[in-house]
Design goal:
This protein is an alpha+beta fold. It has helices spanning 2-21, 27-41, 48-58, 69-78, 84-90, 122-132, 134-155, 173-176, 186-191, 243-249; strands at residues 158-161, 166-169, 182-183, 194-195, 213-216, 222-225, 239-240. It has a four-stranded antiparallel β-sheet, with no helix packed on it. Strands 2-1-3 form a three-stranded antiparallel β-sheet.
């Protein structure tokens, strides 16, 4: 199922890129697009090279492909699912295990002739201790995660997109909606804005690097931004401005 998940994510990225640009993106560009989404929306850094390697493995039916749970859940969110469990249920398939250690330790079946060997290593002793106290450990872990989660939410700063720029707001799901709340980023607050460029706009920096990015809005209108990243409303990766786009949409005399 991990193979289908990776292939589905790249398929969606390819279709979005095709719709936006009219060309087929390379696997490297698609991997970067998905990696940018994971960093921006899931707050999880997963390098585009790793995604590209997973995709190449997925193309080979004979190769074994496993994902970490965080990676799988984020890819599922990119595909429109809440998490990996919903992806499995809605696609009516059998879930696969993850590459991180997440398996329960099963007790051996005892018979009259079974002779249980004494643990010889620290790892084996630790497994026995965990198995005997797993209920207590799970309960303590849940209490810790609940406390830490509430503490982190209260300490974390948040922001929302306010039509042309990001503004800092308190954590209020009822007022803003969980989908609109994003983790506070100083560089987004100070340096990311929607702009309306004209012939007097500084399109390129003195070193030749771009000073304007663009992408289509939800309604299909072209919008321009002062910095790179993802479109605040559609989540699509912003594109660098080019002389062709400037002459066609902004300033014919450029």
């Amino acid at each position: 199922m991990h193979r289908e998940l990776v292939l589905s994510a790249f398929k969606k990225a390819r279709e979005e890129a095709k719709t936006a640009t009219g060309v087929n993106m390379s696997v490297t560009a698609l991997a970067k697009k998905i990696s940018d989404y994971m960093l921006e929306e899931c707050r999880f850094q997963y390098h585009e090279k790793s995604l590209r390697n997973k995709y190449n493995l997925a193309l080979k039916a004979t190769e074994n492909l496993e994902l970490k749970s965080a990676v799988a859940n984020c890819l599922c969110c990119y595909l429109g699912y809440k998490n990996y469990e919903e992806f499995v249920i809605k696609n009516d398939v059998q879930a696969e295990t993850f590459s991180v250690t997440e398996h329960k330790i099963s007790a051996p079946v005892k018979t009259a002739k079974t002779v249980k060997p004494e643990p010889t290593s620290f790892g084996e002793k630790l497994k026995i201790v965990i198995h005997k106290n797993k209920v207590t450990l799970i309960f303590c872990s849940l209490i810790f995660l609940l406390y830490f989660g509430l503490y982190a939410v209260n300490r974390q700063r948040w922001m929302i997109w306010n039509d042309t720029h990001y503004v800092e707001v308190p954590f209020d799901v009822d007022k803003y909606g969980m989908k609109n709340l994003k983790l506070y980023k100083h560089e987004r607050i100070k340096g990311f804005q929607k702009v309306t460029p004209d012939c007097n706009y500084t399109f390129f920096n003195p070193d030749g690097s771009e000073n304007l990015w663009y992408q289509k809005s939800v309604s299909g209108q072209l919008e321009f931004f002062s910095s790179f990243g993802l479109h605040p409303e559609t989540g699509k990766t912003l594109k660098k401005i080019t002389p062709y786009m400037i002459r066609k949409y902004i300033c014919e005399s450029f």
